[in-house]
Amino acid sequence: MGYEVHMPDRALALLPPSDASVELYTHLVWREDAISLYGFPVPEERDAFRLLLEVSGVGPKLAMGILSALSVEELLSAIAANDARRLQSIHGVGKRTAARLCVDLRDKARSLAIPGIPAETEETGPVPAKGGMIEDCLAALMNLGYRESEARPAIERAARELKSVTRLEDLLRHTLQLLAR
């Protein structure tokens, strides 16, 4: 019996000759119209694939494209550094998806504990009145499709309510909650 296993291009390049045995870590995607099996040479890559699938707008095909373009370490570094431009360079990843990847996966990506990836990222001090974290939060919200006229007041309100915010993701999360009301 044989199975068709979809793999990132990076992993395909590392496969031995066809007569050699291979051990893969797999993930099964069951949908109404298809059952697909995705394979990875190391468990961290499979775990990264699963994390990517948790992001709204990212399906198996796009997740495979991301893992074909970037190694797990490069992906996690881009997310930790909030490097949306790096993610946008991948075919199929636009501004909104890149922003969602950075925001949604920053805390979850730390759970993979890949060597060389910092367990924490530090932000400096409380939210300043202008610039800095507020402007970063505004840019993230505008990348998600919000207008500046609705986003800026929500950010300022969130900063007042949280008082001493030290992390961008906390400010962004609270602002999104305010905007959702």
Q: What is the CATH third-level topology name of the largest domain?
A: DNA polymerase, domain 1
- The total of helices stands at 9
Sheet with the most strands: spatial strand order: 1-3-2
The quaternary organization reads as: single chain
Largest sheet: 3 strands, mixed
Helices and strands: which structural class? mainly alpha
CATH class type of the largest domain: Mainly Alpha
Instruction: Give helix % range.
Output: 40-55%
Could you characterize what this model shows?
The protein is mainly α and 181 residues long. Helix content is 52%, strand content 8%. The chain has nine helices and three strands. It has a three-stranded mixed β-sheet. α2 (43-53) packs across α3 and α8 packs across α9. The longest helix is centred in the middle third of the chain and has 15 residues, at 95-109.
List the helices and strands and how they pair.
Blueprint: E1 5-6, H1 9-13, E2 25-30, E3 35-40, H2 43-53, H3 60-69, H4 72-80, H5 84-88, H6 95-109, H7 132-143, H8 148-162, H9 168-180
Parallel strand pairs: 1-3
Antiparallel strand pairs: 2-3
Helix pairs in contact: 2-3, 4-6, 7-8, 7-9, 8-9
List keywords for this structure.
181 residues; mainly alpha; DNA polymerase, domain 1; Helicase, Ruva Protein, domain 3; 2 domains; three-stranded mixed sheet; 8% strand
Briefly summarize what is shown.
The chain has helices at residues 9-13, 43-53, 60-69, 72-80, 84-88, 95-109, 132-143, 148-162, 168-180; strands at 5-6, 25-30, 35-40. With 181 residues, it is mainly alpha-helical. α2 crosses α3, α7 crosses α8 (148-162) and α7 crosses α9 (168-180).
